Every structure is written in C-alpha cells, then in structure tokens.
Amino acid sequence: MKVSIVTPVNNEERIIEQSVGVISKFVRENVGDFEHILVENGSTDRTFEIATAISKRDGRVRVFRIPERSLGRGLRIGFENALGDFVVWYPIDLAIDLSYIRDSIRDIDGYDAVIASKDHPKTRLTRPFMRRLSSKVYNTLINLLFGVGFSDTQCVKTFRREPLQRILPEVKTNDINFEVELLYRARRHDLRMLEYPVVINDTRKDSKIKPFDFLRTAFKLFLLRLRI
Questions:
Q1: Of 33, 132, 164, 218, which one has the greatest count of Cβ atoms within 10 A?
Q2: What are the beta bridge partners of residue 201?
Q3: CB under 8 Å to 109, separation ≥6 — which residues?
Q4: Which among 32, 211, 59 has a CA at the least distance from the CA of 138?
Q5: Confidence label for 209 from pLDDT (cuts 50, 70 and 90)
Q6: Domain 3-227 listed as CATH 3.40.309.10
Q7: Residue ranges of domains in the chain
Q8: What pLDDT is attached to residue 212?
Q9: What is the mean pLDDT of the chain?
C-alpha cells in the first residue's frame, strides 16, 4: 500500500522545510510507503526553491509548480499526478492533527473517500471565531446550492485513487470552489463517502481569504451552480 500526500503551498518559506520533515516522519512511522506531492502556486518568496531542494534530498518528495495562487488548481495537479493507492489532501501548516492521515486510511475500509469536517460533532477545534463563522456561512450556502450533504467541504480529505481519478476529468472548476464541484461529482457517481471528525489547532488570526475574496467566492458559487 502506498499513500500520496498532496499539499499545495503558497508563500510558506518559513515553515515548509520543517513541516515536510514532520509529515514525512509521521507517515513513515505510522503508515509506511508514501510520496509527498508539493504544488507551489503563485509564491513570491523562496517556497519553490526550498521545496526543490527538499525534493533533491528526498526522492519521495515531488514538486510541481503553477504560476498563479490557486488552491483548487494546486489540488487538481496533485491529485492527477498521485501514484499512491490512497490520496490524502493535507495542509503544510499542520493545523490538522497528523493522526488524521493514519486514522482516515484505517477507517476508509468500505468507503471511497473520507471527508473531514470542522463542524463534525466529534471534531475538536481551536480556531478564531470569525474564521469559524465565515466557514459556517460558506458551507451553508454550498449545501443550499448543491446539496452535497457535508457540513464542511474545505477540510482535508482522503480518497482511493481510482475513483478519484475517474471523476476528476468532469470537474472543470480550478478556483477555491474546486472541492465543491469535486464532492458534487462524487455524489453524482455514488461514491461511498464518510464524514469524519478531526482535531484542529488553527490559531492564526490572519487568513489568506480576505472579505472581498469571500464575496467573490460566493459569486463564483452561483456561477458554478448555473453551469452544472
């Protein structure tokens, strides 16, 4: 069994080397065979150079690069190029407890995907109130428009590679709503999906998603609904 960890990175020169080391150690000791796919997207610092240097030292780390900042396209590139039996989307800031990787692979038995949720009743969450509120509003809107049936569409996820790569060509969105359409398509294909609790310690008061970005994202959700 091989696991592909997919991590989009943008302007993370301060933490990328340490975080990749921590992730690699945990997965090696708790899961086994793995690769770590880093997708640098639109960084203006030394993120790509550091990621490339890590890859040269460790062949299990593969690096891809796209010119624009785009979480959605970064995930797509990582998912499309994954070689593992299981594909895990996991963030570079380690805000999600690493146990998710081990536990989701253990509990995916009988399912095609494990969809983590910040709003799961058993999730343990440390996060600023405004970030929690914006996430709640965003996911409520998503369920009103798309009926995906998940309390959170923007958290970490684990897929079996074969069904994931089967539905990817149908997903045309490459912006922040990539995961919304991915889950919508997964529902249409009757993928067996388990909503899953996580332990989150996200104490950052700042966010790369600004108020104007939120309004623009909401507008794009309506456009996506009209398209599909």
A1: 164
A2: 126
A3: none
A4: 211
A5: low
A6: no
A7: 3-227
A8: 60
A9: 92
